[in-house]
Automatic annotation (TrEMBL):
<feature type="binding site">
    <location>
        <begin position="123"/>
        <end position="125"/>
    </location>
    <ligand>
        <name>(6S)-5,6,7,8-tetrahydrofolate</name>
    </ligand>
</feature>
<comment type="function">
    <text>Catalyzes the reversible interconversion of serine and glycine with tetrahydrofolate (THF) serving as the one-carbon carrier. This reaction serves as the major source of one-carbon groups required for the biosynthesis of purines, thymidylate, methionine, and other important biomolecules. Also exhibits THF-independent aldolase activity toward beta-hydroxyamino acids, producing glycine and aldehydes, via a retro-aldol mechanism.</text>
</comment>
<protein>
    <recommendedName>
        <fullName>Serine hydroxymethyltransferase</fullName>
        <ecNumber>2.1.2.1</ecNumber>
    </recommendedName>
</protein>
<feature type="domain" description="Serine hydroxymethyltransferase-like">
    <location>
        <begin position="8"/>
        <end position="398"/>
    </location>
</feature>
<dbReference type="Pfam" id="PF00464">
    <property type="entry name" value="SHMT"/>
</dbReference>
<feature type="binding site">
    <location>
        <position position="119"/>
    </location>
    <ligand>
        <name>(6S)-5,6,7,8-tetrahydrofolate</name>
    </ligand>
</feature>
<feature type="modified residue" description="N6-(pyridoxal phosphate)lysine">
    <location>
        <position position="228"/>
    </location>
</feature>
<comment type="pathway">
    <text>One-carbon metabolism; tetrahydrofolate interconversion.</text>
</comment>
<keyword id="KW-0554">One-carbon metabolism</keyword>
<keyword id="KW-0963">Cytoplasm</keyword>
<dbReference type="InterPro" id="IPR039429">
    <property type="entry name" value="SHMT-like_dom"/>
</dbReference>
<dbReference type="InterPro" id="IPR049943">
    <property type="entry name" value="Ser_HO-MeTrfase-like"/>
</dbReference>
<dbReference type="InterPro" id="IPR001085">
    <property type="entry name" value="Ser_HO-MeTrfase"/>
</dbReference>
<dbReference type="InterPro" id="IPR015422">
    <property type="entry name" value="PyrdxlP-dep_Trfase_small"/>
</dbReference>
<keyword id="KW-0028">Amino-acid biosynthesis</keyword>
<dbReference type="InterPro" id="IPR015424">
    <property type="entry name" value="PyrdxlP-dep_Trfase"/>
</dbReference>
<comment type="subunit">
    <text>Homodimer.</text>
</comment>
């Protein structure tokens, strides 16, 4: 052991981290699921708490020496409850995928039917895709958007639920720009005897500040990541506003029916995870503290207004946005009217230091590795301080790059301009 920092010894890794910081600072980040955390969040994530094993829950651990991390984890839980109006939270899931898997393990048996939003219409891998455990261990069925509107028709969701009789109805998406009717979804779930799971990973930060419908008022269980619009460290969590007796008749050792919260805690540990990442839980606590502030409310408002400005700028330039606009922080753009693929857009924009991801559009005729769409979001660039007119300028650059995708000189010029422009929006304010 030496007092010399790893940073001075392991140049191979730390040079790469410096390169990544430079990439993040010099470019325009539009991946809708990304954001930039504060130095305080990074400090907590990089702290000595990484050294501690703490299987179990605060006050009920399988290891000694957990007094401090108990306190840290309880702060994270309490702040999450306050943010979302929850009465029960588990902050241990390492990711959104882990949070969903823990819910499935707690609530379903292998082979049970689940009904989720189709991945190819904007849904998520963990909501029943055949390549994910959710689609391999359970019987996945799906609803999607209407071809004409790009919007979910809840009458069709209801018809599908009545036909498929799922044990769990799942809502939430990774590329759907409209808000959700959680009350209607709960009515559908009740009608067919399903549990309603809302995965709000993408819009969580906007929901926390009351800028979108409240899923906790209706869904039995809510999962989220902590690193998208919520602007925390990479991670996940599970929440409920109203705990309830599990409907599966599972009893405690004393013969009492176990509460759902108890099953969900077990679904996380020991069901699907081992030791919690207490350094990451500390970083979640710090991020939740930030999200509780009025500054974060202002941020969330700007995320939405920036997305609307961006959607308008794209539309004004003849781009087609699925569903015609956005209620949240993201939008899915169908590039077919411009004669482009998502793959070409992603690969060309990165040459000008604009990062987006290619994305399937509903009823896409191209493969997931090519796609007809691109997804963009405003969470990250709003953190850097860009406003509505800046977002219009971003669209001007995107359009210029895409319309000149085989002109290396234009791409190089745009890249230079962007690198210079981004100096006005430092990642770390000194
Ligand atoms: N892969 C994330 C996204 O980009 O939306 C969701 O898990």
């Amino acid at each position: 052991m030496t007092t010399e920092t790893t940073a001075t010894r392991d140049t191979q890794v730390f040079d790469l981290i410096a390169q990544e910081q430079h990439r993040q600072e010099s470019g325009i980040e539009l991946i809708a699921s990304e954001n930039f955390v504060s130095p305080a969040v990074m400090e907590a994530a990089g702290s000595v708490l990484t050294n501690k094993y703490a299987e179990g829950l605060p006050g009920k651990r399988y290891y000694g020496g957990c007094e401090v991390v108990d306190h840290v984890e309880q702060i994270a839980i309490d702040r999450a409850k306050e943010l979302f109006g929850a009465t029960w939270v588990n902050v241990q899931p390492h990711s959104g995928a882990n949070a969903n898997t823990a819910v499935f393990v707690a609530c379903l048996h292998p082979g049970d039917t689940i009904l989720g939003f189709d991945l190819s219409h904007g849904g998520h891998l963990t909501h029943g895709s055949s390549v994910n455990i959710s689609g391999k261990y359970f019987r996945p069925t799906f609803y999607g958007v209407e071809r004409e509107t790009g919007v979910i028709n809840y009458d069709v969701v209801e018809e599908t639920a009545k036909r498929e009789r799922p044990k769990m109805l799942i809502c939430g998406a990774s590329a759907y720009s409209r808000d959700w009717d959680y009350a209607r979804l709960r009515a559908i779930a009740d009608e067919v005897g399903a549990l309603l799971l809302a995965d709000v990973s993408h819009p969580a930060g906007l929901i926390a500040k009351g800028l979108l419908n409240d899923p906790l008022a209706h869904a039995h269980i809510v999962t989220t990541t902590t690193h998208k619009t919520l602007r925390g460290t990479r991670g996940g969590m599970i929440m409920m506003r109203n705990d309830f007796e599990n409907p599966f008749g599972i009893k405690t050792m004393k013969g009492e029916t176990r509460l759902m919260s108890s099953l969900l805690d077990s679904g996380v540990f020991p069901g699907t995870q081992g030791g919690p990442l207490e350094h990451i839980i500390a970083a979640k606590a710090v991020a939740f503290g930030e999200a509780l502030t009025d500054d974060f409310y202002d941020y969330a408002v700007r995320v939405k207004s920036n997305a609307q400005a961006m959607a308008k700028a794209f539309t004004d330039r003849g781009y087609s946005i699925i569903s015609g606009g956005t209620d949240n922080h993201l939008m899915l753009i169908d590039l077919r009217s411009k004669g482009l693929t998502g793959k070409l857009a992603e690969n060309t924009l990165i040459k000008a230091d604009i990062t987006i991801n290619k994305n399937m559009v509903p009823f896409d005729d191209k493969s997931p590795m090519v796609t007809s769409g691109m997804r963009v979001g405003t969470a990250a660039m709003t953190t850097r301080g860009l406003n509505e007119s800046d977002m219009e300028q971003v669209v001007v650059y995107i359009d210029k790059v895409l319309m000149n995708h085989d002109d290396a000189a234009t791409l190089a010029t745009v890249k230079e301009e962007i690198n210079e422009w981004m100096k006005a929006f430092p990642l770390f304010k000194s």
